[in-house]
Amino acid sequence: xxxxxxxxxxxxxxxxxxxxxxxxxxxxxxxxxxxxxxxxxxxxxxxxxxxxxxxxxxxxxxxxxxxxxxxxxxxxxxxxxxxxxxxxxxxxxxxxxxxxxxxxxxxxxxxxxxxxxxxxxxxxxxxxxxxxxxxxxxxxxxxxxxxxxxxxxxxxxxxxxxxxxxxxxxxxxxxxxxxxxxxxxxxxxxxxxxxxxxxxxxxxxxxxxxxxxxxxxxxxxxxxxxxxxxxxxxxxxxxxxxxxxxxxxxxxxxxxxxxxxxxxxxxxxxxxxxxxxxxxxxxxxxxxxxxxxxxxxxxxxxxxxxxxxxxxxxxxxxxxxxxxxxxxxxxxxxxxxxxxxxxxxxxxxxxxxxxxxxxxxxxxxxxxxxxxxxxxxxxxxxxxxxxxxxxxxxxxxxxxxxxxxxxxxxxxxxxxxxxxxxxxxxxxxxxxxxxxxxxxxxxxxxxxxxxxxxxxxxxxxxxxxxxxxxxxxxxxxxxxxxxxxxxxxxxxxxxxxxxxxxxxxxxxxxxx
Length: 512
Hints:
This protein has helices at residues 3-16, 344-347, and strands at residues 21-30, 35-43, 48-56, 63-69, 74-79, 87-94, 103-111, 115-122, 128-134, 138-144, 151-160, 180-181, 187-192, 197-203, 210-217, 224-233, 239-247, 252-260, 267-276, 290-298, 304-311, 316-319, 330-332, 334-340, 350-357, 363-368, 374-379, 384-389, 403-406, 411-416, 434-441, 478-483, 507-511. By secondary structure, it is mainly beta.
């Protein structure tokens, strides 16, 4: 029986018994080469049901990332190409009919190897540019027709290094791992895990041409992976910008104040402090930890929560099985919570709130729904998507999975098919947490780095048992350090040439 039919039968049966049902759709990508459409239904008794609606193989063999344009009903999927030697980009139109097929393929193109992340830029006149980060040392851009989801190649940047990085096993070559659009919609920020750089590019809103701006060094050997921006208003009414960066190789989360150079000259990041993505717990407990995703979510108190997924350090050994009929305990990695107070521009304090189970192994990606009360976690090594409830007042993520589905292959991303933004309910103050006091000091110098053809890192197995979490005492200060002065900037690369008339992407090489 088709999964859609099964889902509809279940919902129809519930409706017949006067049980109200509300449903939300999600999409999950997997290294099995699939995009799975999921239906999350909330039943009248407040329980949840997660079902598979459809499976699409158009992003095979190794689907690594989903980019969704909810408003225009477009979905873009990256195939990392780990078994083919090249990647691919596939676009789809999202269908809202009841045929059982949720995606209609529009275009499929072979692209440079190892695409792992993307961002969709929309200009003031509605034109769009899809920008793709390739772990195999490249960045490519694609002009998108918003109405049809078709696209045309525009620019291609190749990155090289003169010497290997401090972590030779992971930093033999540049590894761009994320594309993030800044709050002013003018710049692309690209953490490079291999080169220990934050690469910056200016986007011309009229031509959609991308031009390199000075890159920003981060601590040597840290391996920057993903970041997130936060915008707030100061007491004087001016806007304050901050950037929070998760570094995979050192398991750190670092905060920066953001400033903009005149004449679209780039951005500067002034370090404010950093700490471990597992808070005050010891490195021995989290040996081998590899943080992956970071998400910013508002709280009803006006504070802002930062959530980080930690992989490869299985802290919870006896977590309840997501299947209530199965009493076998499972191992679980973690989600770590931090709070940024409302007065972030003056206090510069991240408060560590604690850990919660991720629901399984290797939480490569997670996302939060529009309302902010549900977290969907993609578990790569468990082949599962789990749903947790999240408290809008405190940000606490529940200890019990409220819905899950397994058998999806190595899940690489999971996104909600909802409108943008957050609808946060008003409530009381957030729970008190442990203060992280930031003590500035001299910045470490970035290490050298080298060109190479390092193969993609495979997902490591979860580590053995760790000691139970010891709650930090309320009010305990954890002093962490990072530079006082802004990071040194790399030389400005040359501007790229105009794209070829054929739509093929001219290659621009950038060496650091």
